[in-house]
Structures are given as C-alpha cells and as structure tokens.
Automatic annotation (TrEMBL):
Origin superkingdom: Bacteria
Catalytic reaction annotation: [protein]-L-glutamate 5-O-methyl ester + H2O = L-glutamyl-[protein] + methanol + H(+)
Keyword Transmembrane applies: no
MF-aspect GO terms: phosphorelay response regulator activity; protein-glutamate methylesterase activity
Catalytic residues of the enzyme: S15, H42, D135
Organism: Stenotrophomonas tumulicola
Name recorded for this polypeptide: protein-glutamate methylesterase
GO biological process, alphabetically ordered: chemotaxis
Keywords tagged on the record: Chemotaxis, Hydrolase
Xref: SUPFAM superfamilies: Methylesterase CheB, C-terminal domain (SSF52738)
One annotated Gene Ontology cellular component of this protein: cytoplasm
Length: 190
C-alpha cells in the first residue's frame, strides 16, 4: 500500500451546519502546524462575514479573512470572504476571484480544491464537511486525481449529508470519518 505524501496545504469546505463543524475542526489544529489552512464556508454574498473573528478564539492558529494576493502562510487559517472565490495562485500566494458562482455559491469549494490540486498536486489534504449542495464533489475529484488526499465527513454524521455523500459518489475518498475522528487525525499533523 502506498504511504500518502505528507501534505503541504490543507483545504477545507463546508456549507449547511459548517460553523459548528468548523469550530471542532479548528480547535483540533495543532499550534505548531507547518502548513497553511484555507477554508471555504458558503456565506451570504451581500453582507460582511465575521466568521474568522468568531472562530479565531477557538483555534491555536491565527484565523483571518483572505485578501487578494496574500502570501500563503504556514500556521494560519484563512477564510474566503463573502462574494469571492478563494484560489491557490501558486506555492506562495492566494488570490480572490469574482468568477461566476459555482452551484449558486461564491465563495465555492470546488475552485479552492481544484486550484490547490493544480498547484500542490499530491501534497494537498482536502477535507469536505457537512453541506446541502454538491459543491466540493468536482474539487475532491481534482485533488484525488492529482494524488492528494481527501477526507470526507461521514454523511450519517453530518448535519447536512448531501455534500459529503455527493463527493463520495462522484470521487470516492481516502477516508470517510465522523467529525471527532477527523479532529483526532488533524491533531497528528505537523
């Protein structure tokens, strides 16, 4: 059996039920994490988000909202802002995009996962959590096609099962885990 390549970046997607799930996930991230963490949570496009501010106290890492052309920083959790897709531009930088919504969402999960896969290939760890759309399915497929790892929240454990179930059907997964097990495995990252 092939041993997975250690990730250099973690990308996380969530929608319905995602705030609660992300609180657990961010609490699990170790303080000395040596890689950046990028997050898309489906947000209303027409008002400011306080999600980074809300979740920062729960996390040992710095949590902030993305800015265009911001450097990728290890040990930092960066959220997509409302009405922008969050993309990995290259191995050093992120970008924000106003490309068309994907499955009615901007930010959307697929563009983040696909851009991370294009830049980091087998060094991506993608985590898809609860949600009520099929956003993330194509992104999980791109990550797995590039040799990266994809962990999906077990649909039966998710507040909204459609998102992880859709990705599992479309692309499979390297692990299908209950949220508590995702958190345990995240604690092992360096």
């Amino acid at each position: 059996m092939d041993v997975p390549v250690p990730p250099r970046i973690v990308v996380i997607g969530a929608s319905a039920g995602g705030v609660s799930a992300l609180q657990h996930v961010l609490r699990a991230l170790p303080a000395g994490l040596s890689m950046p963490v990028l997050v898309v949570l489906h947000l209303p496009r027409d008002r400011p988000s306080r999600i980074a501010e809300l979740l920062d106290p729960d996390c040992a890492l710095v949590v902030r909202e993305a800015e265009d052309k911001q450097p990728l920083q290890p040990g930092t959790v960066t959220f997509a802002p409302p009405d922008y897709h969050l993309l990995v531009e290259d191995t050093t930088m992120i970008a924000l995009s106003m490309d068309a919504p994907v499955l009615f969402s901007r930010p959307a999960i697929d563009p983040l996962f696909e851009s991370a896969a294009a830049v980091f290939g087998e060094q991506v760890l993608a985590i898809l959590l609860t949600g009520a759309s099929s956003d993330g399915s194509e992104g999980v497929a791109a990550v797995r096609d590039a040799g990266g790892q994809a962990w999906l929240q077990c649909p039966d454990d998710a507040e909204a099962s459609l998102m992880p179930a859709s990705a599992l059907q479309r692309a499979g997964a390297d692990a299908v885990l209950v949220l508590s097990r995702i958190c345990e495995r995240l604690k092992e990252l360096k």
